[in-house]
Specification:
homodimer; 356 residues; alpha/beta; five-stranded mixed sheet; 11 helices; 13 strands; 37% helix; globular
Chain lengths: 356, 356
């Protein structure tokens, strides 16, 4: 059983992901698979993914928002992964593990610097997971939004463009940015923290220690508060808000308009700074998209530079709630894509031919 | 004489630029030179620059801030360039022209989309200058801040880093961003418009059509207004403000503190979004640097994410007022750097061997 206070509502059905194999390179067999893991605010997930994005098996379990120690989450992820890893046999070969986490992550060593939603600070997640999973393949840890934009670029809403921004948000708001076809990382891997653009000098305190950050105006807490609901109500409360909005409740609609307007202000900042072709709304923003898109486009028109917003589209995530998990899989395939021959050649013992 | 109402205060002395030749490639002779041109708010400039950043000759003339038609500026730039081009003879070979302009520029064809400071909208500057200069080498037009960061990266304050942001500002505020060693362009070349990040919902109208943009809080007009001076006083009035501050005038110091605090708020946004190693303050911000750096660092500490600001430095431009002009020269050398052999081979008539 999954430990640590999790609701063990396993949904191990295949995720029906629309997709086509990457045009870059094809393996000589269908044997290369990766393990993708995701630790988000409300759930933990694992998937066994083949080259080209084929999901062989996946599982997602809800989790409470209580802060859990990192070793508990690591144990839970390892337990979720175990039955998937057991499927790797015969002609299949596990070539990597990709991990997505709602956190500021140092890319070089997978150290979680700060994860306000998880209550983590300076957690060596890559090292802990490598130990818990007991696998000998490379394991990489990355910020959830950074992986979301990767998946949407490979086979989602940013498939045909090289400049895109993926906005992930529940309680916190993060960004994954694609610049000229390459992920924006920054000097240490922390780039893309668009949720912490200061947009309101009279704004509320932010969990980062600052105040008036964009996420304090557009995150789940802001949306629920604006509608007179408990700020900590979580996704179920958001569901009830959307039901009320659907049936014409004026307070619910006003709250969605207000968040939509702030969403548009931040997207104007993003458009002015990055001049992207597409801005992709993930997670919370994917859910509320139909109710906010008019306000977003109105504010973007008022606050964005004419040239920069000329060709931009604001769209919901094409991969829905699975962008981030699928991005973790894409990330795990990176060494393979850089040098497929080394990975597909017969390997003897620990010798392998990867150049890096 | 330079036409169009210019003050013809020519200062054709050599700019003493500290620098070393680029380590990337060396020409087989010192013969390759480029023409660099700059149209800024308060001056026009031209320079003949050799490979490695050696400035053979340069000229900068002040200009009034009155809006001049694009063909007047083009004629003025051509007149400034003529004596420099006349020096290209014998073993020297002109291989390109780089043009910097305070504008949002479409990179593909050098179309100025918007230049509020010049009063231009949809001006085909590259085409006009190519005609006026009567040269047959490639001519590229780019945003001033984009070129500033390029020069500072090659031989200035960002020489040893791959993630940097250069902030240019007089009346308007622009940004040049280096991401993983490469310039941030965006889908159309408009990226980096950090001056138009909305930071104040109760802010002043901005010349871009929006309001509360960062440049309305930190630009020259904001600084002069805050000190009770005429907002349109220009750089001379800024000079008087700085003199007053130097002699301890409290109102001048308070205005600098206020602008420094807003500068820090915007730099926090930049640090959170880009996670750069260095933020370089150019033009106006270079001038006021000693008076604002304490406020900037205070606000950056309060509003920036701890991980992202851990290793960042906020420094004045190492190339002073010449970053942008020297960046235009660097830009003009780009085709040469990509394929030096093609450029250095003996050329017959119009045949040349450049691959692109």
């Amino acid at each position: 059983m999954v430990a640590g206070g999790l609701v063990t509502e396993e949904r191990p059905e295949l995720i029906g992901v629309p997709g086509r194999p990457s045009p870059l390179v094809r393996p000589r067999s269908d044997s290369a698979v990766v393990l993708a893991l995701e630790a988000s605010v409300d759930s933990l997930a694992a998937a066994l993914v083949g080259f080209g994005g084929d999901v062989h098996a996946s599982v997602r379990v809800e989790r409470p928002r209580a802060h859990l120690a990192a070793d508990e989450i690591v144990a839970d992820l390892a337990e979720l992964a175990a039955p998937l890893l057991a499927r790797v046999s015969g002609s299949m070969s596990l070539i990597g593990v990709g991990v997505a986490v709602v956190a500021i992550v140092r890319r070089t060593d997978g150290l979680v610097r700060l994860a306000p939603n998880l209550g983590w600070h300076e957690v060596p997640l890559a090292r802990m997971l490598t130990g818990a999973l007991d696998v000998s393949v490379p394991l990489t840890v990355a910020n959830d939004a950074d992986l979301g934009v990767l998946a949407e670029h490979r086979r989602g809403a940013a498939r045909d463009v090289d400049d895109a921004v993926y906005i992930a948000g529940e309680v916190g708001v993060g960004g994954g940015v694609l610049v000229d076809g390459r992920p924006l990382r920054g000097a240490d891997g922390y780039a893309g923290e668009i949720g912490h653009i200061p947009v309101n000098p009279d704004g509320r305190p932010c969990r980062c220690g600052s105040y008036g950050c964009w996420e304090t105006e557009v995150g789940e807490r802001a949306l629920l508060s604006a509608s007179g609901r408990p700020a900590d109500g979580g996704p179920d409360e958001v569901g009830r808000l959307l039901q009320d909005a659907e049936s014409g409740d004026e307070r619910a609609l006003a709250a969605l308009r207000q968040v939509g307007e702030w969403l548009g202000v931040g997207i104007a900042a993003i458009v002015n700074v990055f001049n992207p072709r597409v801005v992709i709304l993930g997670s919370l923003f994917d859910r509320i998209y139909p109710y906010v898109i008019t306000s977003v486009e109105d504010r973007l028109a008022a606050r964005g530079l004419a040239a920069s917003r000329e060709h931009v589209r604001v769209v919901p995530a094409a991969l829905g709630g699975e962008s981030v998990l699928l991005g973790a899989a894409e990330q795990a395939f990176e060494p393979f894509l850089e040098d497929p021959a080394a990975w597909l050649a017969p390997r003897v013992g620990e010798v392998h031919l990867a150049s890096a």
